[in-house]
């Protein structure tokens, strides 16, 4: 009972922070020159939404001298990531905060960041972001987008209703939600698992109704959706890093010299904003994971030998998806930077 109260208090604290953040951040100029409409799956008051309100909105208002107001549609009211991107293309929305799934749709080449067991820790993630940001900017621009921020969904964990997921044989007995598209589908196939394609809003229902029994996702989502009450096991091995994106239509910054200046002003603040945002998300996810373990989720870590077997099964996926989801050259560059970083550290 105490642990359940702890989980509820985590969620309540996020809701409180969200309410405070919204009141402060969305109070802008009385008559802004421009209103940019954004949408996201993030529910208002939890995790990413709090940090958007506390960090992004004040930054935009300050750097545009209060001439831009960002209006955000929270919690999937504009649909899932696919729907949001469609509405951006027709001009109904200016921008979005996308989940890892949305990244694969908006800038498919950036799927390279989500390869299984690619990164070992946050330092490697941050190094690759710093080294390859010009390439990511260029790729986004090719798709008609401006990267307001390449942030974290975080390292995702493996959750299961039935099995500890600490051995390869557990994957072979499991049925996973598959919400990340072809990369995730191929990874699960390599592990011998069954996969049921679902959209984000369907994940909770699929698990509760027994259509699937396992999921790969971030801790904060498991708390926000109250899925912690369904799962029995969690394996916290870094099976994949998931980026998230704050994006805006490139054409929005081409209307006038004034609006172009807004883009440059945001770029000047972007590194600071991304650093602060990712630091907060990482703390949130760890708090949520700790709370779920105290609530009663069983930590099912794999032995080094079993983890090596699981990782080795997924390694061919890197090459199978090269030339399909991302250019081979992009993967090679990323791996070269990683090798340099690991040698130096």
Give an overview in words:
By secondary structure, the protein is of the alpha/beta class. It has a single domain, classed as D-Maltodextrin-Binding Protein, domain 2, CATH 3.40.190.170. The protein has 12 helices and 9 strands. The chain has helices at 2-25, 48-63, 81-89, 100-106, 122-142, 168-172, 182-190, 200-208, 219-224, 257-295, 304-321, 328-344; strands at residues 34-40, 68-73, 95-98, 145-160, 175-178, 194-197, 214-217, 233-249, 298-299. The strands form 2 sheets. Strands 1, 2, 3, 4, 7, 8 and 9 form a 7-stranded mixed sheet that branches. Helix 5 (122-142) runs antiparallel to helix 12 and helix 7 crosses helix 11 (304-321). Residues 1-6 and 12-29 have low confidence and may be disordered. One of its GO terms (biological process) is transmembrane transport.
Provide a brief overview of the structure.
Residues 1-25 form the signal peptide. The chain is an alpha/beta fold and 345 residues long. It is built from twelve helices and nine strands.
């Amino acid at each position: 009972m105490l642990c359940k109260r702890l989980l509820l208090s985590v969620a309540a604290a996020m809701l409180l922070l969200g309410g405070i953040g919204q009141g402060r951040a969305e109070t802008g100029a009385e008559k802004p020159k421009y209103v940019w409409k954004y949408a996201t799956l993030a529910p208002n008051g939890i995790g990413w939404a709090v940090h958007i309100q506390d960090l992004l909105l004040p930054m935009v208002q300050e750097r545009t001298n209060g001439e831009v107001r960002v209006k955000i549609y929270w919690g999937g009211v504009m649909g899932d990531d696919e729907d949001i991107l469609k509405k951006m293309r027709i001009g109904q929305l200016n921008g979005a905060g996308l989940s890892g799934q949305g990244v694969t749709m908006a800038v498919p080449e950036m799927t390279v960041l989500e390869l299984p067991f690619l990164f070992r820790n946050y330092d490697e993630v941050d190094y690759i972001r710093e080294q390859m940001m010009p390439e990511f900017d260029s790729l986004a621009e090719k798709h008609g987008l401006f990267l307001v921020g390449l942030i974290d969904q975080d390292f995702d964990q493996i959750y299961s209703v039935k099995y500890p997921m600490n051995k390869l044989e557990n994957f072979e007995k499991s049925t996973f939600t598959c919400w990340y598209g072809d990369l995730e589908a191929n990874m699960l196939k390599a592990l011998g698992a069954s996969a049921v394609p679902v959209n984000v809003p369907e994940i909770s229902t699929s698990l509760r109704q027994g259509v699937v029994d396992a999921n790969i996702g971030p801790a904060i989502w498991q708390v926000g959706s109250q899925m912690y009450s369904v799962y029995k096991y969690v394996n916290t091995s870094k099976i994949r890093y998931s980026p998230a994106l704050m994006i805006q239509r490139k054409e929005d910054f081409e209307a006038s010299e004034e609006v172009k200046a807004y883009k440059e002003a945001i770029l000047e603040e972007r590194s600071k904003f991304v650093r602060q945002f990712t630091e907060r998300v990482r703390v949130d996810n760890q708090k949520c994971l700790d709370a779920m373990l105290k609530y009663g989720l069983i930590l099912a870590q794999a032995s080094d030998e079993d983890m090596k077997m699981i990782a080795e099964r997924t390694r061919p996926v890197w090459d199978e998806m090269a030339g399909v989801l991302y250019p081979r050259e992009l993967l090679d560059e990323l791996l070269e930077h990683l090798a340099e970083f690991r040698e130096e550290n």
